[in-house]
Here is the input.
Amino acid sequence: MWLVSVRDLQFRARRFVIAIVVVAAVFGIALAMDGMRRAVQDEAPAIVDGFDADAWLVAEGATGPFTSTRVLDASVADDVDGARRADPVVLSRTSIAADTPRDVNLVGYVPGGIGAPRIAEGRAVREPGEVVLSSGTSESVGDRVTIGGRRFVVVGRSVGGRYYFGVPTAFVDLADAQDIMFKGAPLATAIAVRGDADAPAGTVRFEDDAVVDDLNRPLQQGFSSIAITAALMWLIAAGIIGLIVYLSAIERTRDFAVFKATGAPNRVIVGGLMLQAVMVALVAAVVGIPISRLVALGMPAEAGLVWSSVLQLVLVAIVVGVLASLAAVRKALTTDPAVAFGGK
Here is the structure.
């Protein structure tokens, strides 16, 4: 029966090739979206780990260092007892001036202190007026840019550093960030701490895991939207394959009648149709992998491709193929053997 299914694929090759191309495009888009979701979910742990802080102190009532607008006096860092180091940081949003302003995350830190990014090119910030930019920006080391209304020299580019769905980050001197956000007032959005220290009065201590959860909190609806869209893509793929296989089953009604009249068990007929649908789905999945890389180029966030995603796509393709064959299976099982002899 598997050979009959293969021969039917060859006989109706044009139809099945069209189905494979369309389903591959659907699989490719879904795979790229899943890669973007994984990349975005990895951004929060990466930026928090990049600070290498053991704890974060924020003002009472603040939801977290990255998401709250509540501020505290930067001098609180001097009152943290028991810490190996405690540095004020400013974590906010601003933009790079251009014909079309580009949004960036703003990280203000004490040069050489907690919050300094890992450098991929150039060097770290040493004084006010210098900036290190993350990936996602087009400026090169040595360029001059206007960020938040202030002029900066790009002295380096960082390893990673993007968050909030791939928004790039500008790392600047703490004083520059205070000028941009607080008109020079000695304020901070958080105190990053290394070592085991209690929270001074008026502050709340956050561990890294709580900071990551809070940073991801505003993105939950985005994650849910991506997951729902991916599920709809799988359903669309199943519908396309199901339609093609069902049309094939209608045209093969007399074949099924002959099989049943000659004593072929139902499991053989069912297995052949399912095999046909699964073969189409698997080929579409293989073709969909390079398509996903092309789609990822236009994604707002970096969409990485990992083997777990490929394995998931293969498993989904098998499930899609099986589900897509059900309508054709029903058609085959309800075919009257009398049709093989010219009956109705």
User: Anything to note?
Assistant: The mean pLDDT is 85.
